């Protein structure tokens, strides 16, 4: 069974003359434990596809599945639970809470969902992301790369079915970016974590198992085990 699936998804913004088709019949299956990158020019529908898969945005027609849950069949309560408990997010801007320590930021999704921290899993994620000696630091005391690794740990701590990363290296220097990408890759190979990442960067995309290219709201090309040269 796929970790996530889009079936002939259509989505437009606006109405009448002003309507813009952001997704024009996208079908894609994301296998469990795989790391997929979504690339394409600005305005090609990458963010829309990610938001529709994650249940952050509604679709006009088609179906979106996370595991065996049909996302477009959910009502408010189900959508809230899906976003809170079953998917994880990593953003370009880190989006950490400044008054909380790294540890509190990482465990926040569990606290909000009223769930217990699995200490062994927490320790493994923190160790893998290299933050063990930074847990009591607040975001302002951390470098950009460290802040994004906190955000990665936060995304993984609830063992979500899919982690969605939107330009996760967009605000990082290449070395910090490589650390974050290395972590995402390891979380797919070692933890069987399904990852979907939107990126403009061919080097970033080359960390993925698979790259999907969008143009004008459609999938136009796909690469498996890409090299950075092939992505360009
Ligand atoms: P990308 O992430 O590849 O840059 P988007 O998914 O953001 O592309 O956008 C796809 C298309 O949908 C673009 O034409 C964009 O202008 C349009 N679009 C995206 N979000 C909105 C919105 N909230 N309102 C109106 N149009 C939007
Ligand atoms: P193989 O499975 O023999 O390696 P494929 O061409 O089917 O050959 O796939 C090559 C690689 O592309 C896979 O190992 C995986 O990394 C990636 N891939 C294939 N299908 C998917 C999928 N549905 N979701 C995510 N990644 C995929």
Question: Can you describe what's shown?
Answer:
The protein is α/β, with parallel strands linked by helices and 232 residues long. The protein has helices at residues 46-53, 76-86, 102-112, 119-129, 144-156, 174-191, 202-205, 228-231, and strands spanning 4-13, 20-30, 35-39, 61-66, 69-70, 87-90, 162-166, 195-198, 210-215, 218-224. Helix 4 runs antiparallel to helix 5 (144-156) and helix 5 (144-156) packs parallel to helix 6. It is globular, with a radius of gyration of 17 Å. The two termini are 31 Å apart. The model has no long low-confidence stretch (mean pLDDT 96). One adenosine-5'-diphosphate (ADP) binds next to strand 2.
Task: Give short descriptive properties of this protein.
26% strand, binds adenosine-5'-diphosphate, 232 residues, alpha/beta, globular, six-stranded mixed beta sheet
Question: How would you summarize this macromolecular structure in one to three sentences?
Answer:
This protein is of the alpha/beta class. The protein contains 8 helices and 10 strands.
């Amino acid at each position: 069974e796929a970790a996530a699936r889009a079936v002939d998804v259509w989505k437009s913004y606006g109405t009448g003359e002003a309507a813009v088709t952001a997704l024009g019949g996208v079908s894609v299956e994301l296998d469990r434990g795989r790391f997929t990158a979504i690339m394409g020019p600005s305005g090609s529908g990458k963010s829309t596809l990610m938001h529709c898969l994650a249940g952050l945005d509604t679709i006009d027609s088609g179906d979106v599945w996370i595991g065996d849950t049909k996302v477009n069949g959910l009502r408010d309560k189900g959508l809230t639970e899906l976003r809170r408990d079953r998917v994880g997010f990593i953003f370009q801007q880190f989006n950490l809470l400044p008054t909380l320590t790294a540890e509190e930021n990482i465990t926040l999704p569990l606290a909000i969902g009223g769930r217990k921290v699995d200490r062994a899993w927490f320790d493994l994620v923190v160790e893998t992301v290299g933050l063990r000696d930074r847990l009591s630091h607040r975001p302002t005391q951390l470098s950009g790369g460290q802040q994004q690794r906190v955000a990665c740990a936060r995304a993984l701590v609830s063992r979500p079915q899919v982690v969605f990363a939107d330009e996760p290296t967009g605000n990082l220097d290449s070395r910090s970016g490589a650390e974050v990408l290395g972590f995402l890759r390891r979380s797919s190979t070692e933890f069987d974590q399904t990852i979907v990442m939107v990126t403009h960067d061919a080097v970033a995309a080359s960390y993925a198992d698979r790259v999907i290219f969008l143009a004008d709201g459609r999938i136009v090309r796909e690469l498996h085990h890409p090299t950075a040269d092939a992505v360009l």
